[in-house]
Amino acid sequence: MRPIGGIVLGRLGHRIGRRAVLLVTVIGMGVATGAIGILPVAASAGLAAPLLLLLIRLVQSFFAGGEVTGAAAYVAESAPAGRRGFFGAFTPVGVAIGGALAATVCGLTSSMLGGEAMTAWGWRIPFLSAIPMVMISFLVRKRVEESVAFQQFQQHSEPPKAPLKEVFSLHTPAVLKVLVLSFGQNVGYWVGLVFMNIYMTTYLKYDKTTVYWIMALVSLTMAVLMPFWGGLSDRLGRRKVLAIGFVGYTVLVVPMMMLMDQQSIGLAFLAMLIVALPMPIVQSVGYPTYAEQFPTRVRYSGMAFSFNLGAILGGGVTPYVATALIGATGNLLSPAYLLMGGSVIALLGLLGVRETAREALR
């Protein structure tokens, strides 16, 4: 659903503006997330329970298709000249802080209620907490102005009638570049953060509540580092800094997963912190790089489609492939090899990306 949401919401973003669509996406995602908290369970509703959950997840993904790329486009179009990397880094900072908050809520709920109550009804609390959060987000976003670049575009041009068609006819190389980099970025996020949670709790049998706290601390640490790397990419260039991140993934993931498997929660925390170090690099520099590949006229649609397609391949398909590989080989390091492969593919794609850090947005 993410590319579909990207197409629909991207088209709206060209017509009614970035700000208006970002109001729509935060409401849509927040309401859908909160709705999970009131769903019936299979014991009372039978097959309807998982079908309703699937429907809500599809709605979430539809709005997610226009959310992060819309935010990245908005920030890039509003940032001062020569500082798009620094300001663009705050898009994934929000994601990282949100992830840390999510892990914190799960950790608090789990520790306060205990396993039995958490399984019975406590799992609803984190989802229901999305309702007040979406209200706060809506009020904050309602106060922001339209992006500078889009305002200038509106003064001189009409929005494209078929933005996606224009993207493919005039900007296919940019689509392919963003798709490949997004693929590597999302493999890194899924293996480097999501799977590591599963790896430590399901396979290595560390306490779930403890792992929640580790993930919260790691996410906050990554958020603090992102503006530094984004700012560094303004000085050194996007390509060099992104290369550091993808090489870091390739080198660190296997030894750090092996270090986690020493049955020491202290070593596991250290390993998780180290294996996540490339994440703030790739996340913070990726979004401004994607925005710079497309002109303002089709930026929203171009980013939304290509980034979300890469997210499907890197973050959507990877969990199934990783699970299948672990089942077939019995090797818990299989997801690490997927991350290494995804990083190499991204590095190869990076060779074809023109340096855009010092160029004005088109």
Automatic annotation (TrEMBL):
<feature type="transmembrane region" description="Helical">
    <location>
        <begin position="265"/>
        <end position="282"/>
    </location>
</feature>
<dbReference type="Pfam" id="PF00083">
    <property type="entry name" value="Sugar_tr"/>
</dbReference>
<dbReference type="InterPro" id="IPR020846">
    <property type="entry name" value="MFS_dom"/>
</dbReference>
<feature type="transmembrane region" description="Helical">
    <location>
        <begin position="332"/>
        <end position="353"/>
    </location>
</feature>
<feature type="domain" description="Major facilitator superfamily (MFS) profile">
    <location>
        <begin position="1"/>
        <end position="358"/>
    </location>
</feature>
<feature type="transmembrane region" description="Helical">
    <location>
        <begin position="174"/>
        <end position="199"/>
    </location>
</feature>
<keyword id="KW-0812">Transmembrane</keyword>
<feature type="transmembrane region" description="Helical">
    <location>
        <begin position="241"/>
        <end position="259"/>
    </location>
</feature>
<keyword id="KW-1133">Transmembrane helix</keyword>
<feature type="transmembrane region" description="Helical">
    <location>
        <begin position="49"/>
        <end position="75"/>
    </location>
</feature>
<keyword id="KW-1003">Cell membrane</keyword>
<dbReference type="InterPro" id="IPR036259">
    <property type="entry name" value="MFS_trans_sf"/>
</dbReference>
<protein>
    <submittedName>
        <fullName>Proline/betaine transporter</fullName>
    </submittedName>
</protein>
<feature type="transmembrane region" description="Helical">
    <location>
        <begin position="87"/>
        <end position="115"/>
    </location>
</feature>
<keyword id="KW-0769">Symport</keyword>
<keyword id="KW-0813">Transport</keyword>
<feature type="transmembrane region" description="Helical">
    <location>
        <begin position="20"/>
        <end position="43"/>
    </location>
</feature>
<feature type="transmembrane region" description="Helical">
    <location>
        <begin position="121"/>
        <end position="140"/>
    </location>
</feature>
<dbReference type="InterPro" id="IPR005828">
    <property type="entry name" value="MFS_sugar_transport-like"/>
</dbReference>
<keyword id="KW-0472">Membrane</keyword>
<dbReference type="Pfam" id="PF07690">
    <property type="entry name" value="MFS_1"/>
</dbReference>
<dbReference type="InterPro" id="IPR051084">
    <property type="entry name" value="H+-coupled_symporters"/>
</dbReference>
<dbReference type="InterPro" id="IPR011701">
    <property type="entry name" value="MFS"/>
</dbReference>
<feature type="transmembrane region" description="Helical">
    <location>
        <begin position="211"/>
        <end position="229"/>
    </location>
</feature>
<feature type="transmembrane region" description="Helical">
    <location>
        <begin position="303"/>
        <end position="326"/>
    </location>
</feature>
